[in-house]
Amino acid sequence: MDQAHNRAIEALQPFIHLANSNSATSPRFVAQIITNATSHPHTYVFAELLETPTIQSLRAPDAPAEYQGYLKLLEIFAWGTWQDYQGIPDLPKLSAEQSKKLRLLTLITLTTKPKPLTYTSLQMALGLPSTGDLEALVTSAIYSGLLHARLSPTTTPPSVNVTSVAPLRDVQPASLSNMAIQLTEWEARCGQVVRDLEAEIQAVKLNAKRRAAKESSFERIFKARVDEHHVEIKSKGGGSRSGDARGGRGNKGKVLAMGYKREADDIEGDDGFFDAGEGMDIDEGAGAGRNNGSGSRTKRVLGERQF
């Protein structure tokens, strides 16, 4: 797209040189410069040519009326449309090359508007009688690098889908004030959007800090509770082990004491028959039965006594 713009500026330079030359003295010669410039296949911008004193001389009151229309024609090629040309009487008649060039320029202008580019609307705006003529013009614009587009003749309604357009139209001087107002309003909207985004960013950062502080507090509380639980488990486990040790030593003492007591009882009841075997019955004699008065005999078992 930039190449098309540079090519258009380069194509206009010879006509600018002619307009600034000493030979451009007659209105007829100036009108011929305008005709040749608007007929050239690669010229699509004309503001620089319009600003030359030679071209502006056609605006003078003493300029012949038959040539004054060429200045208006050049202005239409610079920022006007096909419908503008049709709406102004007494303008110079266009050649086939000029008609195609003005329609191509009009097509570029139409693509910048939000309205859908249907076949019907484009044919009316460009003054084309058939869809074949419209498709041929759009195809020529695509191959010339003026725009990137796709024809959709089978859609309902048939339309032209444009994706990009070359910056090849000049800006009308009277529209500069409106453009400045629109740019100022756009700048104000952009500033408001930036301020809103900054406020959202600050809110997100503040929420993130609060969430991080809350999570950190929760982690500290959780760690403290876990540490307390570990201390409690250690304290309970240590007391149980010490108690078991003490209990084990106490039980061992009791077992030893019981063993010593049993041995003492065995020694105390020993009557010389210890080697006869534990639990061996010994009859102490018939006279011993009188001690019970029932005729029963007293038995002595080694290691313990039974009565």
Tags for this model:
elongated, PCI_dom, 62% helix, 307 residues, PCI domain-containing protein, signalosome, mainly alpha, two-stranded antiparallel ribbon, three-stranded antiparallel β-sheet, COPS7/eIF3m
Summary, kept brief:
Keywords: Signalosome. With 307 residues, the chain is mostly helical.
Overall description:
The protein is elongated. The chain is 62% helix and 7% strand. It contains ten helices and five strands; from the N terminus they run αααααααααββαβββ. It folds into three domains: 2-171, no CATH class; 176-264; 269-305, no CATH class. The chain is mostly helical and 307 residues long. The protein has helices at residues 2-20, 27-39, 47-50, 53-56, 65-79, 82-87, 96-111, 119-126, 131-143, 176-268; strands at 147-152, 159-165, 281-283, 299-301, 304-305. Belongs to the CSN7/EIF3M family. CSN7 subfamily. Residues 271-284 have a biased composition (Acidic residues). This is PCI domain-containing protein. Pfam families: CSN7_HB_subdom (PF22061), PCI (PF01399).
Task: Draw up the topology in text.
Elements (H helix, E strand, L loop, with lengths): L1 H19 L6 H13 L7 H4 L2 H4 L8 H15 L2 H6 L8 H16 L7 H8 L4 H13 L3 E6 L6 E7 L10 H93 L12 E3 L15 E3 L2 E2 L2
Antiparallel strand pairs: 1-2, 3-4, 4-5
